[in-house]
Amino acid sequence: MCGIIGLIGNNEEDVVDQIILGLEKLEYRGYDSSGIAVLDKDCKIKRLRAVGKLHSLKAKLAVDRISGSIGIGHNRWATHGTPTEKNAHPIISKNVAVVHNGIVENYKELKFDLKKDGCIFDSDTDTEVIASLLQRGINNGASPREAFRKMLQTIEGSYAIAVMFDLLPDTIMIAKQRSPLVIGIGANHCVGSDITSIASFCSEVVYLEDGENAEITKDGVLFFNRNFNQIEPSRHRISIEVIDSGKGKYQHYMQKEIMEQPSALRRTMLYNKIDKSILNDISRILILACGTSYHAGMVAKYWFEKFLKIPTTVEIASEYRYRSPVIEPNTLVIAITQSGETIDTIEAVEYVKIHSNSKVLAISNVKNSAISRIADFVFYTEAGAEIGVASTKAFTAQLAILASIAFMHYDFLIQELQSFPTYCEEVLNLYGAMNDLAHKLCDAKSAIYIGRGSLYPIALEGALKLKEISYIHAEGFAAGEMKHGPIALIDDNVPVICLCPDNELFDKTHSNVQVALARGKNVIVFTDFGKSEILSDEITKIILPKIHVEFVPILYVIPLQMLAYSIALLRNTDVDKPRNLAKSVTVE
Ligand code: AGP
User: Fold this and answer.
1) Is-catalytic flag, 583?
2) Any ligand 1 atom below 6 A from CB of 345
3) Hey, how many other C-beta atoms are within 10 angstroms of the C-beta on 432?
4) Does domain 3-239 have CATH number 3.40.50.720?
5) Contacts from 510-514 at CB under 8 Å and sequence distance 24+?
6) Are 29 and 3 in contact (CB under 8 A)?
7) Which residue, 554, 549, 462, 540, is CA-closest to 501?
8) Cα separation of 346 and 105, whole Å?
């Protein structure tokens, strides 16, 4: 998490507005605080920082304008140190300003050592040791380049760093280790945590690899490997699709992204034709993912075992490498990650690569993301940029790819899948119904979601959507598991949202619905026309289109996304940037 940007103006122009534009694009990475530092015309470091979202920094800038033709900026998602102004980046130590995304893991030892040398610390951040190490180097007579290289040899952990020195007023020094960083070359030479943040300033980009570092000036960029030998990495032209098209007519990105699902699904299926050879000699599938992507993996397990007859395990990536997992021969590993950057998923894949010969298939929404560079092959969900922190269209697009793999031997299912987006369009008309339901549920303290079979992961996903954007406590359960404990939570004030399509598990789930109704009066059932008439009148029913049973999980998640969105609106939360969260999770 955290977003960093650095930019050098052409012809000495002021870069503050461009840095703010870049920070707007990076706000999804963290919004506990933001800050900017520039070198002014007298080569003095000028800095402004503000707690909270970027608009606070903009308000400060409006009254206390700084300007300069070289600058760095930062959006923070707090790890070390509370979200206060003193902990906001850029962190300065006399001649040096630093922005950092990642964690300096050996910061305690380094801080102890630096303090013994008389260094004074102003913040509680791990990042301040970077600034202090650089300053100590300068004080000891090193050049900025020497100090920067020595610092890189001293710190451990993960980092994307951009540094400005007042002694070297035309250069930004940067380095990357396990945190994303893209360098832009073109009208401006620049650096950012992702491509969208710098796409408007340059025409080509270079994705730095771990251990690589660079020096950016207005005349060009010098690239170095971890041994500081100069290298010439390959450059990529920026395609138009990376430029975020904004919210359009919608109030929030999340709303727009929910509505975009039919087109996202169509594009994803069009661009991903599954080559059956990916399963040659495969006798097991291991899925690694986090959060919503993990729920997509859980749905896939049902499909893979039923249609491919391949035993499938789904693992929470953050847990996986901290036990001693057995990776059997002929296992295909599928890493699912919207951002392609989630450190837990990346590290789990690295673990697999070290401990087995398994091939890794990545499913990601971001071209050239970190996962795509370590996987053996990649399927891209063509959902377009997903900006809202709560994942919606990326999830259904992931399911479309996973379904295409699962049904590869069943042409009729693949054909049905092609027509599936039309049903999504129908479900999107339920906004009014979800809004009415939201009025009934928005004051709940807690909510329960239940489902069976492939609807169980959708219950988990529905609960996750509700908790992350409305801050209502919500839990998803396998419907049959309720009687083993969670049923004790039900009373008239706890809504129970039941996913009960007309499939082979209908009768069983219906029994669970009745049991819930016997204990609480707020039971809501999402079902289809087939059996809705047998449901008790006391139940609130949401009727969805009748579709092939295998596609039900993809369809049923959509009204749950809309419901969470409508409830969050009524509770007046910041839907696209919910508290404490960040879109892309690059710390463990
Ligand atoms: C989803 O709404 C969440 N914001 C979160 O659970 C997310 O799915 C998770 O962090 C994994 O992200 P990834 O798909 O980018 O790896």
Assistant:
1) yes
2) yes
3) 10
4) no
5) 510/534, 510/535, 512/450, 512/452, 512/479, 512/480, 512/482, 513/539
6) yes
7) 549
8) 18
Q: Which atom of ligand 1 is nearest to the CA of 289?
A: 16
Phi and psi torsions of 427, nearest 5°: -65, -30
**Do 363 and 334 meet the contact criterion of CB atoms below 8 Å apart?**
yes
- CATH T-level fold of 430-575: Rossmann fold (3.40.50)
Q: pLDDT tens digits, the chain, 588 residues: what are they?
A: 799 999 999 877 899 999 999 999 999 899 999 999 999 989 999 999 999 999 999 999 999 999 999 999 999 998 889 999 999 999 999 999 999 999 999 999 999 999 999 999 999 999 999 999 999 999 999 999 999 999 999 999 999 999 999 999 999 999 999 899 999 999 889 999 998 899 999 999 999 999 999 999 989 999 999 999 999 999 999 875 555 668 999 999 999 999 999 999 999 999 998 999 999 999 999 999 999 999 999 999 999 999 999 999 999 999 999 999 999 999 999 999 999 999 999 999 999 999 999 999 999 999 888 899 899 999 999 999 899 999 999 999 999 999 999 999 999 999 999 999 999 999 999 999 999 999 999 999 999 999 999 999 999 999 999 999 999 999 999 999 998 999 999 999 999 999 999 999 998 999 899 999 989 989 999 999 676 678 888 999 999 999 999 999 999 999 999 999 999 999 999 999 999 898 888 777
How many residues are given for the chain?
Answer: 588
Centre of ligand 1 to C-alpha 387, Å, is: 12
Atom in ligand 1 nearest the alpha carbon of residue 464 = 2
| 209 token code pair | 């690899």
What is the domain partition of the chain in residue ranges? 3-239, 252-428, 430-575
Strands (E), 428-551: 446-451, 473-478, 496-499, 523-528, 540-544
Which amino acid makes up residue 370? A
Residue 335 β-bridge partners: 288, 362
How would CATH label the architecture of 252-428?
A: 3-Layer(aba) Sandwich (3.40)
- Give the burial class of 548: count Cβ atoms within 10 A of its Cβ; 0-12 exposed, 13-18 middle, 19 or more buried: middle
Q: Which among 346, 389, 585, 588 is the best mutation to test ligand 1's pocket, defined by most ligand atoms within 8 Å of the CB?
A: 585
Q: What DSSP line would sit under 308-370, residue for residue?
A: I---EEEEEHHHHTTS-----TTEEEEEEESSS--HHHHHHHHHHHHH---EEEEEESSTT-H
Nearest atom (ligand 1) to Cα of 290:
11
C-alpha 375 to ligand 1 mean position (Å): 19
CA of residue 391 to ligand 1 center, whole Å: 6
- Distance, in Å, from the CA atom of 280 to the CA atom of 332, rounded to the nearest integer, reads 10
* Same fold for the pair 252-428 and 430-575: yes
